[in-house]
Amino acid sequence: MTTTTTAADRRSAPATEPPARTGGLLPLLALANTAMFALYLGVGSVLMPVQIAQIDPANKVATLGMIGGVSAVFATFFNPVAGALSDRTGRRGPWILGGGLAALATMYLLGNVHTVLLATIGWCLGQAAMNIYQSAVTAVVPDRIPRAKRGTASAVVGLGLPVGGTLGVLIASQTVTSLRTGYLVLGAVVAVAAVLLTAFGREPRRTPTPAAPLGRQLKAFLSALGSHDFRWAFIGRALMVLGYFCVLSYQLYILTDHITLPAGLEPTAAIAVLTPVSMAAMAVSTVIGGVLSDRWNRRKLFVGLSAALAGLVMVVPVISPTWTGMLVFSALNGLAFGCFMAVDTAVVTLVLPRAEDAARDMGVLNIASAGPQIVAPFIAAAVIGHLGGYTGLFLVGGALSLLGALAIVPIRSVR
Cβ distance 164 to 41 under 8 Å? Predict the structure, then answer.
């Protein structure tokens, strides 16, 4: 396929295109991302809400929001900082391995706490470890995958979300009576994936980025946002993720306090059903969206339409706050979010301002994923408490996703 090379393409392209043959790299990356999302969703959707409901049942909504917001500050800070450090060292492997092993240690800690304070500290440390791991894993695609294959690669890697999310929620749902076991299993999954990727990924040594004065580093740290297209990609990702996590973070409590479930179906068991439905739909749209966006070279179209769909489907549980309504919502939301994340990731790799700062700039972009998770729990708790309960929460989440769809329009260098 012939594509037009823009100025932004030339700025973000490395001096030497990554080799067309990547061997077994993509399966290892898929495994690394699968493990990452297994931990994120298993802990965030099931284990942590259950643990907080046990520790502080009367204030579970506000407490979960506080822990989610504070811990996301650590995610927002550690992701780009660790990315910049891996750029400087010229290696991704040590950061992947170190983050994965640290994640196992922090999950052990979380499984042994019984107060809100210690749960907060434990999840903050967990977010720090996981974002060290994530920043290095994310940078491997722009480092080592040819530009023409970015959509397909992002789709393969993006399967980590539906597969990992399903795996994580199933593990967590089966271990709610033994939270320590659940945390340890999820931590071990990440640690094993980190070992395999670093052992068999055959990472070529990159030229380390030379150290610069602190003032210049701070200026350069967010310089990517000075790029028009990168800035709009950042805004669109932030709005979409904010809308998504406003709802997802409270799914267990939505099923407990808002949705009418069939007799005998417990909320944790309901999540174990809804998650595979959502993730199966996500897997389908991740692959189809990524491959077709490469074939047609129309990535903005896929990103915009999927974000719009994510916004519109939020009305389903409002109109029908039933088990059937939640099943329909989960399937459609999975289709939308899977396509968005797969193709939007490809868009981002194509608008990076400087290839030699790929991990740092991808880390800045990941603020658009981690940053909204800081405010999402606070927004969600405020909406639930003062602006219409869970019905208002779905409507706010939908409005944010629709705004995310509009943010893709100003991007110029990607079709």
Answer: yes
160-193: per-residue pLDDT in tens? 877 888 899 999 999 989 999 999 999 999 999 9
Residue 375's SS3 state is helix
- Measured CA to CA in angstroms, residue 209 lies from 79, 230, 357 at distances of 17, 21, 8
Query: Strand runs (DSSP E) across 51-203, as ranges?
Result: none
Sorted by sequence, the CB contacts under 8 Å of residue 162 that are 6+ apart come out as: 278, 279, 280, 281, 282, 283, 286, 334, 338
Torsion angle, alpha carbons of 248, 139, 335, 76, to 10: 20
**Average pLDDT of the residues in 93-116:** 94
The CA dihedral of 232, 238, 241, 242, to the nearest 10 degrees, is -140
| Cα distances (Å, whole numbers) of residue 112 to 64, 119, 163, 246 | 18, 9, 27, 28
The stretch 248-268 carries a mean pLDDT of 89
- At 208, is the pLDDT very low, low, confident or very high (cuts 50, 70, 90)? low
Nearest one of 227, 260, 249 to 380, comparing CA atoms: 249
User: Whole-angstrom Cα distance, residue 293 to residue 16?
Assistant: 24
How large is the average pLDDT for residues 306-313?
92
322 three-class SS:
strand
Give, in order, the Cα–Cα distances in Å from 305 to each of 22, 152, 233.
Answer: 31, 19, 15
Per DSSP, the three-state class of 262 is coil
User: pTM of the predicted model, to two decimals?
Assistant: 0.73
Q: Which two tokens stand for residue 253?
A: 């409590």
| CA 218 to mean position of chain CA atoms | 25
Token code pair at residue 306 = 């999927």
Residues 52 and 63 sit within 8 Å (Cβ to Cβ): yes
Integer CA distances (angstroms), 8 to 12, 262, 379, 413, in order: 6, 53, 35, 6
| Chain Cα centroid distance, residue 239 | 13
Which structure tokens are listed for 236? 């669109």
Evaluate whether 320 touches 270 at the Cβ level (below 8 Å): no
The pair of three-digit structure tokens given for residue 26, joined into one six-digit string: 């993509």
Domains of the chain with CATH codes: 23-203+225-407 (1.20.1250.20)
Which pair of structure tokens corresponds to residue 356?
Answer: 């030699």
Q: What is the dihedral of CA 303, 331, 240, 223, to 10 degrees?
A: -60
**Based on C-alpha coordinates, what's the Rg of the chain?**
20
Q: Specify the 3-state DSSP secondary structure of 260.
A: strand
